[in-house]
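Task: sequence in, structure out. Protein: Quinoprotein ethanol dehydrogenase.
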Amino acid sequence: MARRSARPESLAGAARQTLSAMLLALGASAALAASPGAEWRSHGFDDAGTRFSPLKQITPANVKDLGLVWSYDLESTRGVEATPIVVDGVMYVTAPWSVVHAIDVRSGRRLWTYDPEVPRAHAKNACCDVVNRGVAVHKGVVYVASLDGRLVAIDAASGKRRWEQDTIIDRARPYTVTGAPRVFKDKVIIGNGGAEYGVRGYITAYDADSGRQAWRWFAVPGDPSQPFEDESMAKAAKTWDPSGRYWEAGGGGTMWNSMVFDPELNLMYVGTGNASPWSHRQRSPGGGDNLYTASIVALDPDTGKYVWHYQETPGDNWDYTSTQDLILADLRIDGKLRKVVMHAPKNGFFFVVDRTNGAFISAKNFVPVNWAKGYDRNGRPIEMPGARAVEEPFDAVPGPFGAHNWHSMSFSPQTGLAYFPAQNVPLVLAEDKTWRHNQAQAGQPMAGIGWNLGMQVNSRAPTSQPFGRLIAWDPVKQKEVWRKEHVSPWNGGTLVTAGNLVFQGTADARLIAYDARDGKELWSSPMGTGVIAAPVSYEVDGRQYVSIAVGWGGVYGQTQRATERNIPGTVYTFALGGKAPLPEFAHRQLNALVGGVAYDPADVAAGTALYVSNCVFCHGVPGVDKGGNLPNLGYSAPETIEHLERFVFKGPYMARGMPDFSGHLSDEDVRKIKAFILGTADAVRPKK
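Result:
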């Protein structure tokens, strides 16, 4: 049973709550916001996904006067990736665990919350934190997808559930849903994730009113001994080698993030994910492009029928998903106005593709890359020697964290520039010749909780260097116009406005405003925690606001950080002349390196392999990393490590999503993991 709550802080708050509900019921949006583009009604602002606000009350000349109007506690400690939706004077935003908050945008007061009560045990199926990227709002209904794969329709005024659908086709598979639903043509559309574990990706449309399934499209073919669902699957199957029995590992291609829509062409576009497992040779020994992974796909939104595709990374071997933000625009290229889709996916190239037919127009790398030297005139990558090495580890640049991950991109029709965070997180990949689906062996990354990569990770130290930056990119000339370097990878998404401002949050806990034309930094505010989500802008009662939901996390943020400040998940709202005080920031406390606990050095090697298979992507390398939104075990209290079994077997942190390793690890295994933690802490401890 889901939980909902309404907790106004006073009688006045209760009155405001009642008034807001009445206004919602009456559809009184005109009284609340009259300017074009005054609301932020969908995930990417508009169906084209531009994240361009036409509001221009806040400008480069006056942004220095921006101040806090209110802040709101999301009561969370995990990653916050949500884009707030603002409709009829109410903000709808999600916290970790798919909890929805409805907030009065004038006062920042809570109207209601809805908790779908995701079972905490489901967290082990989430590769990249228990995050949620937001809701859709349509005709008085809020739609949220829960981490465990349910699509829930909630009454926008009351916070009560209207209907719920299970979107998962096979509960034996480790599917998750972290993306925001989209509504196109009265259909609610949602995909899923789980390709690191082994699932078959698909996207489903439901009738917005009744919740009945309208259509479903799979991104990769299933068992070829069974009838294919449609012609697109029969075509795709020809690009997979059945000797690899790819369907047993699912094949991947999960569609967990970007969807956009062109009403004139009546086409929706979706980005597909990496293939499963990561290793091309393991899943398809004879080669092949492995359609429709790592692709942009156009579908008929009425029927879900495949129309066209463009594959950005054929035969993906590096976890180069194409699920990053798609943006539709009309660009004048070589003197001709072209209807295009723009994309900056993980593989490090910025793509411009004709959205009418999927024809390749151009691609240019926006960060240094070493897997391909470019794309040929047919839109095929020209791969570098060694990029698919079998015998030698490959320091992939970009690595699986991506040159640009899910963090939102924006586009200004005024400047003609796209704005997005770029990065490198060094990671070495090596073919794992011993891998078999769901047959975990010690030393295989996170295989103990179900990961199936077919690759070893960091079998030697990477040589590439980490970086994080904000890039302004000209998609017509395919070149960088300006950039801003950040102190770390994993910075937040962007918002661009008609006031010629770009807003972005950073890993080191700031929200910054830049001049969209030249990148000059004009204003900043501390956030109290690293920022990964994107800001939004809207207008109420003639006043322009900028809001952002913050909370450090995501796959990188579970083990790493770039600030020692700490604060629960929070929504900040700014406007010109705002005078509210910032919430109090805590300083993160880091214990001394753990020590004083007996262990057998002979157990360290075996403990290393067990730790890699069960712990490393959540807790990082003991004593080397400092911990993100999850603790680094090298800085644990000695009594915690001494009695590690109390936490590993039916431990107290199961309520926060930690797996129960009962039946998966033995007491002897835990003893060896303890030895690795303690031995590594001793190895990095400064010598006296």
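The chain has ten helices and 41 strands.
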